[in-house]
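Figure caption, in words: inputs first, then the predicted bound structure.
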Amino acid sequence: MKKVFFLLFLLIFSVSLFAQRLPRVRILATGGTIAGTGASADRAAYTAGELPVKDLIAAVPGLDKVAEITGEQVANVGSQDMTVAIWIKLNKRINEIFKNDEADGIVITHGTDTQEETAYFLSLTVRYDKPVVLTGAMRPATAISADGPKNLYDAVVLAASKEAQGKGVMLEFSESIFTGRDAVKINTTHVEAFNSPNDGPIGQVYDGQVVFYKQLLRKENKSTPFDITGMTSLPEVAVVYLYADAPATGINAAIAKNVKGLVTGGLGNGNLNKVNTTAVEAAVKRGISVVRASRVPSGRVVLHDETDDAKLGTIVSDDLLPQKARILLMLGLTQTMDKAQLQQYFFEY
Ligand code: ASP
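Bound structure (aspartic acid present):
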């Protein structure tokens, strides 16, 4: 009888222990203003990417009640210095963490300048759909009302939440949740620095609660062909912007550099003026894959409107801005140079 009671006690004890286990969230730090420090309480002359990950975690009271937190420093740069090499390193580490079941979710602290690019790159290349949440700050850690601790807290809440399971790569900023694909930095200095110009946020983190009200229909994570395991670099793709009376200097320089791909930040519906149309013709003849995107912040670039893509040999970016189109083209070119296939990627991913 005693033995039965003891066994029962053991069972209840272990069940309650299991029930109380918090989700495991790994924080991968890459630098940015969230880890930035300055000599004064404002932003004047601060330096991004100074504080180590342990200091970022220590600055957020109550984080240990949300999840079992562990941290790793992957890089410590201002994200204006983000590189393809760091992206490849991040991708490798994220896939390893999920493969080895080291965490239930991942938060990446990152500068805001290129955060949207890293988010899209990861959403196309990470092979798991467990939550990966990017966040950062607009004010350095030493500033009055630094926004980093609150953003980090909300990002951990999101990565640890059951609502985020299966949602893949997201960006959380100022209480809004965006897809890695559609998040765009829309303000240079305000704390509400991100939005998705075509669709808005897909959800919110508020008072420690996660609510989703939309979902991404594009393919991502393991439904893309972009498994970059073993790769150490990506095909070079240049971005060239247009403006009234723009000469073809940018496109000609890209051709001279032997880039594999070119994205134009065109006018209106991705239009090119005459000299740049001629330059694009020359680029296509040289075997360079050219994607027409637009410098306009929202909307789609559509095939065969004012520009005859079939004649020019160009691909359209759909609703990707030039900096995001570059990422998809770099990854697309790891698979194929076929124009129709590359175009299909832009309609699906
Ligand atoms: N230049 C900084 C960075 O991107 C800006 C920021 O984090 O807000 O690292």
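The chain has two domains: 21-223, 237-348.
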